[in-house]
Structures are given as C-alpha cells and as structure tokens.
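Readers of this paper often ask what the protein records in our data store actually look like. Nothing more is needed to write down the fold, since each code stands for a local backbone conformation. Below, we set out a record of this kind in full and without editing:
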Amino acid sequence: MDIIEIIAKKRDGRVLNKQEIDYFIDQYVKGNVKDYHASALLMAIYLKGMNHSETVALTNAMMHSGKIIDLSKIKGIKVDKHSTGGVGDKTSIALVPLVAASGAKIAMMSGRGLGHTGGTLDKLEAIPGMKVSLSEETFKHQIAKIGMAITGQTSDMVPADKKLYALRDVTATIDVIPLIASSIMSKKLASGTDAIFLDVKMGSGAFMKTFPDAEQLAKTLVRIGKAFKRDTRALITNMREPLGFAVGNILEVKEVIATLKGHGPSDFTELCLVSAAIMLIQAKLAKNISSAYALAEKQLKNGKAFQKFKEWIKAQGGDTTYLDAPEKFKTAKNVITLTAKKSGYIEEITALTIGEAAMHLGAGRLSVSDKIDYTAGIILKKKVGDHVKKGEPLCEVYTNKKDYQSILKDIGRAFKIVSWEIRKPEIAIKYIK
C-alpha cells in the first residue's frame, strides 16, 4: 500500500476504504508516514470531506492506535461525558457528583484548557491537593468504590490523535467535522464506557458558531457512537453568553460549590439537571426525561450531590475544607468592578470576548507551556435579558496583573445594552439521540 496513492485518492474526492485508513494511522504512529504526507492527507480530507463509513473507520483506527481501557469488571452501566468546550463551562465538575449521587457510575477522562476555553482538569487543580492524574488501577478502583472518577488521558491512549491534532493545529485543518468527530470519539470510545453523553456548545464562545454546524457535529458524533454499539446521545447547548456567572478556575469552583448546595445560577443549574437526566436514562436508572430530571433535582435538594462531591474530591486528594468554607480560596490582588454606561436590557454578552479577556487576565493559556493564575477571572453580575441601570455593576474582574486597562475595555465591549426588553435565552437547545 502506498501513502501517495491514498493522498491522491482523497485529493480526487474518492472514498477511502478501511484498509487504507488503517494503513495511514498505523504507519503514521510508527513514524513511517511522515508529517508532510499526513499534512497533505489532512488537507485533502478538509477540502473533500469524509462520508460516514470513512469517519467510522478513521475513529476506529485512531482508537486502536494505543491502549483501550477495560471497565467490564466494574458492576453497572458506566457513563462518560464530553463537552466541546466553552466559556465558564464548569459543568462536568458539578454534573459528575450529581449523577453519581443518583446511583450511576461515571468514568471520565478529561483535558486542559487552551485559548478561550477552560479545562476541567485545570479547574479541579484549583482545589488544593487535588490529583487529576490517576493510574488505571486507581481510576477503576475509585469508580467501583464511590461511583465516579475524573482523570487526565494517559499518554498511551489514542497516540494517533495527539500526533494528528498537533499537525492539524499548524496546518489550518482543525475545523472540519470528520476530523473533529473522530478526534472526540476515538478518545471517548477508548475510555471503555458503555454510554457517552455529549454536550455540543453553540455560539460565539463555542467551536461551532451556528446551529446548523452544531447540529451536524452532534448528529455525526451520535452516529459514530451507535456504529460502535454505544448508547450515545447529544445535547446542543447555548454558548452565546458565558455559562453561569463565573469565568476562571477558582471562581468557577466556587460556583460549582454554590450550585451543589442548591443556590447556583439558573442557567448552569438547568444545564446540569437536563444533562444529568439524559445520563440517568443512559444508566437505565430512569425511563424518561421528567422522572430522571426529578431524580437528579432530588439529589440537589437533599444535599446528597454535595456530599458525593466532597467524597470524590477527598478520594483524589483534595482538601475538602475549602468546599465547606469557600472563603478559604485565594483571591486576586486586583478586583475591579465594571459598571453600565447607560440603562437598558442586556441584549448580548459576547462569550468569546469574555473568554479571551479571562485568558489575558491569567485564567487561561495561549500556549500549552503557559502557567495559569487560578485566582484570575470574571464574575458576571448581569446576564442576557436582565435589566441594568446606569452605574450598576455589569461584572467584577479579578487579576494579579498590573497592566489590565486594555483588557477592561475589551470586557466592556462584550456587553450590549438596548432600550427594549430582551427574552432570556434557553440553555438547552436540542436533544439528539
């Protein structure tokens, strides 16, 4: 088999077969197919696309390029969750204990943030002592014992994705659905769970900016999962404005604590409950959305979700005294309040602008090697649809940087205030199964 012939075949818009895709991935991981070959094929895929069978074959080859976790000895249905990333998206940290408190088994391998999107592992590490790199044995033991665990992906899992993603990043071949979908699903399938729930974000702060693109990605992900006989479902959710009020690692952890104690932001709480309901159906602990939603809501009201959260954080080495007394968390030296320049209704809070501003304040990374300031970030005081008076706070800005004036101007431009009443947006847009 010849890699040049494979490149030419896809360049001409023809369908690659499973053997050709397997050969490409196997030889690329081994180093026999060079980066310039892979770059050419990626660009051909970007321009000509892939059909469903090709995308499934690519996912399968990537999944089998490294170790696959076997969770079969753990009793019960194991459920995983993935978000395509957004601003203020701390959902996994609240959702996992909420679902586990309802009786499900959750096995999650998560990632770090880059650019304007935050990473679950970074947010968890804002809790002193928290360990997010678990051995496979510890990962399995913890799921069996307390029903949940979140860890980083091990180096020997899906090595093809690591190599290809790095190459896509420097060859302008990131944003094409077959490559996005195979990257996501190869990792989710390799983690060994029985069911997969996908939160596909849509809007300015998301990877998919429009509903048609988000819907196409969600349907592609679900079809791939079903091809591998996994119960796979997706929820398209709103990322036109930041999720909840908090953006930034410690600030978001504090918001998770408040939410699990029953007094979190309405949009964030609703997203957690709807997502939990779908995952509980996948775990066969409820038959429909309404009963599953009620079961999850019960865990918030009776305090079991928060207790499960503490149990989880303790199991992974975190200091649970910070969960009982969030005021113990460090605070940035500079806390600046931005106020409204006129009265009216909030029509827009551009999530992308807020996310990029938080990153420049120190809450995120421009490159993988950048260090995160866990105290940096933004707390919104208003959301889309809220009324605001001139001089009333729009948000609080947290940073340890001395030069932040230009960032404040950017944040101010993220808020659009109009004179007419604005309807509050729905957080959950479409359920795909």
